[in-house]
Amino acid sequence: MRIFQQCLCLSIVISIRLSSAAEFPDFASLPARPELPDPLVMLDGTKITSAADWTAKRRPELKALFQHYMYGYLPPKPQRWAVEEVLFKDPEFLNGKATISESRLAFFGPDLKQRLYVLLVVPNGRVGKVPVFVGMNFCGNHALTNHPLVHIPEGWVYKSCAGSENERATEKGRAGQIDTWNLDLIVERGYGLACFYSGDLDPDTPDFSDGIEPSFYAPGQTTPKPNDAGAISAWAWGYHRVVDFLLLNHSNSIDPKRIAAVGHSRNGKTTLLAAAMDDRIALAIPHQAGCGGTAPSRVDIDRKDVETIRRINTAFPHWFCDNFPLFNEQPDKLPFDQHCLLALCAPRPVLYTNAIEDQWANPDGQFELLKAADPVYRLLGAGGLDAKERPEIRKLVDSKLGYYIRPGKHSMDREDWGVFLDFADKQLGK
Ligand code: GCU
Question: Closest ligand 1 atom, CA of 410?
């Protein structure tokens, strides 16, 4: 009887402790665990043995854990949004092979002053609905094409973007990233692309007040709480809003079941988070995403060859929530590692793509995390990673969990897009 009572008490304590993210343990009470945490073991030690328990228990817990300790809670979907204006629509794009349009979205409740410009390219003359990639770009939609009507962002842009003058985009940057996005190839292969600029939602600066985040603060709040959204969460929210837009406004041409997310580097970190948090994203390609995305947080903190979380939190203090730097010197206290974020995408296909000279993104560590997420995919009967060793250069592993590494540097190029499209063909069907 006493044993029964004790068990009962313990289970009540555990369920109370885990009933809300606010009650997750503070940093000091988290145990150090040098090994990768088992994605199939709950924070209270309960082993997950069925797909139903993964979906009902562990998945919501992991979603909350990542937001609480690392990225900050994604802002909620606004009560209302609207296409404020379709800026233009041109069915003669790429010699009539595609239709290009751009829409400006506005958000209300809370009312955001920011506007999201979505560039949409859809191949013409296809039978049936087309699959579409949703991507976030670094330099503005106008950088994807030489089309003269595409909007040039008015706000902050990176100094490194073509045509950037005093951190503002100019006409000179039009088509500056044409070789990064390869619209002609995407269209030729029968896919659409919906693209937006990260700075529309949150300029990539350490200023915490210039993005959408403060609009979601509680009354009287002036600074972020330790688990409020960092920039990556705000950007992931943008992927979700573009999915809303595609489903509501373009479901006659876009296949709602074949929406893929893609992004490079910091935008790849965002891609993985966006896919982990939203099942409407059918496939994710976080390209060269590295630390804070596809690579492990548990690396020797003194390593100089790969990025550590101390390094990333120092160089980019605004990307994650304020709880995350607590782990700078002790990443082994994190109650998860990045394979758990990947596992949140199960059973959907995810491809990790890398480059040999981009060791900073830890391509070997990334492969280990694919292996570590595999048991969740297998539990869901979804296949997994069909490779035991990191594949040779230019050999695509196109199983549900996929991997590819090419020669060269940190960039997104035509070869990468060829691989993204091959993987999407295989996993989403032609
Ligand atoms: C830096 C940063 C990386 C990031 C990359 C990028 O190198 O350290 O974490 O992925 O920028 O976004 O290009």
Answer: 13
Confidence of residue 13 (pLDDT cuts 50, 70, 90): very low
> What stretches of 341-382 adopt beta strand conformation (E)?
350-355
Task: Return d(Cα 283, Cα 327) in angstroms, integer.
Answer: 30
Residue 27 lies in a domain: no
CATH of the domain at 209: 3.40.50.1820
**Pick the catalytic residue: 103, 233, 265, 297?**
265
Per-residue pLDDT at 334: 98
Rounded to an integer, the average pLDDT of 156-179 is: 98
Residues 76/139/266/245 CA torsion (nearest 10 deg): 30
- For 388-417, b/e burial (b = at least 16 CB within 10 A) is eebeeeeebbbbbbbbbbbeeebbbbebbb
Active site residue 265: yes
Number of domains the chain contains: 1
* Domain contains 194: yes
Under a CB-based contact definition with an 8 Å cutoff, are residues 212 and 237 in contact? yes
Residue 278 included in any domain? yes
3-state secondary structure of 199: helix
Q: Which residues contact 318 (CB under 8 A, 6 or more apart)?
A: 204, 205, 206, 207, 208, 230, 231
Instruction: Answer yes or no: are the C-beta atoms of 354 and 412 closer than 8 Å.
Output: no
C-alpha 17 – ligand 1 centre gap (Å):
36
What would the pLDDT profile of 233-259 be if each residue is shown by its tens digit?
999 999 999 999 999 999 999 999 999
List of residues 6+ apart from 218 with CB closer than 8 A? none
Q: Identify whether 151 is a catalytic site residue.
A: no
Residue 361 pLDDT > 70: yes
Q: Which of 159, 180, 198, 266 to mutate to test the pocket of ligand 1 (most atoms within 8 A of CB)?
A: 266
Q: How many angstroms is it from 218 CA to the middle of ligand 1?
A: 31
- Domain boundaries, position 338: 80-428
> Residue 8: phi, psi to the nearest 5?
-60, -45
The residue among 395, 396, 398 whose CA lies nearest residue 384 is 398
* Each residue's pLDDT tens digit, 131-140: 999 999 999 9
Q: Judge contact between 268 and 361, C-beta under 8 A.
A: no
